[in-house]
Amino acid sequence: MLLMTVVLLPVVLFLLFRAWQHLPGQARSGPDTPAATPPATAQAAPPDRTVRAATTARAPLPPADAPITDIATSLQARADAGDSLAACRLGMELLRCQQVPDEFAEHHFQELERQEKHHRDEGDTQRAERIAAGRRAQRDLLAACRGIPQATRDRAHHYLRLAALAGEPDAQLRYASGESLGLMGRFDRLTSPEVDAWRREAPALLARALAAGRPEAVQLLAEAYRPGDEATTTIVGWVIPNDPVQAHAYSLLQRQLSGGISPPGQRPAAGLDDAGRARAQALAEDLRQRHFDGVVVDPERVVLGLPPLTDPFALSKHAAVADRFCQSDAAGDAP
Questions:
Q1: Alpha helix (H) residue ranges in 81-149
Q2: Burial class (CB within 10 angstroms; exposed 0-12, middle 13-18, buried 19+) of 325
Q3: Which of 4, 159, 215, 262 is the least crowded, having the fewest Cβ atoms under 10 Å away?
């Protein structure tokens, strides 16, 4: 199932993108689309007055490995009372539950068991143990999420949006990515109020995350600015106009921040002349100095971007991964 999902994902995104292009009022991506305002100077999204980020120290969040069934009620109460960190954490946990439906279960676990046995037979005990730990973590997550009512799971996008508009960089990244919109296979949702609000807010929120020094924003922008249909690999590419200079600039910035690692599937700046390449180089250096000067960046975060919330290897160290989410001391601070 996991392999099939990987193969079909680009196809589904492409079909959704084509449907999106033909909706009334949606600008179509193409070579004649005007260049976007640089994200770092994009106009900020309007604040949401229903949730405001605290400017003083806030109560700590529950332990990162706490089951969602044990913390959902308290997080929801805090989020509804205006705690943007709690809204961020709750949105992340509910989104994780949305991504492990029941049909994810037995045949997927059987495949993981097969992989574990294969690596043990090959003598790769370390990888086998990682797969086993991930399988156990996924089973635990599936069991915990079954205790969360569907109506509560469906509010993942709501809480991520509140936290994003309140200034939490982790929520800004996940919300701007479009991951919480639930569009896969749901063409009817393209005209929903949630998608319309996201279309208006995502570019500016991504700019805020970039300004906060979040390396995942670089990866999302490098994908989003890619010319033509290449941009459909990320949903946020639907609302950021094509710009090959910006695309190349963010790709260069990725390589600079990652110590020279080229992201998977990245292509050279096709179609750029020497002047365009020079502009991209200058923009990449400007972005590095403004947002990442003196910042130590995890290469994995700048190359691969947002970690999958249900990846078995990530879940095998769930506490370590979750510790990276929604832990800023003040809204807008980089962790």
A1: 84-98, 106-121, 125-145
A2: buried
A3: 4
Q: Which pair of tokens denotes residue 259?
A: 């110590």
| Distance linking the first and last C-alpha atoms of the chain | 35
Of the candidates 238, 253, 285, 248, the one whose C-alpha atom is nearest the C-alpha of residue 270 is: 248
What whole-number distance in Å separates Cα of residue 78 and Cα of residue 76? 5
User: In whole angstroms, how far apart are CA 80 and each of 91, 149, 204?
Assistant: 12, 18, 24
pTM comes to: 0.77
In angstroms, the CA 236 to CA 53 distance is 25
3-state secondary structure 141-185: HHHHHCCCCHHHHCCHHHHHHHHHHHCCHHHHHHHHCCHHHCCCC
Structure confidence by residue, pLDDT tens digits, 57-116: 578 888 887 889 999 999 999 999 999 999 999 999 999 898 876 656 677 788 889 999
Rounded Cα distance between 109 and 143, Å, is 13
The torsion defined by the Cα of 56, 201, 185 and 106, in degrees rounded to 10, comes to -20
DSSP 122: T
* Dist. CA 117–CA 202, nearest whole Å: 43
Sign (positive or negative) of CA dihedral 92, 202, 232, 23 = positive
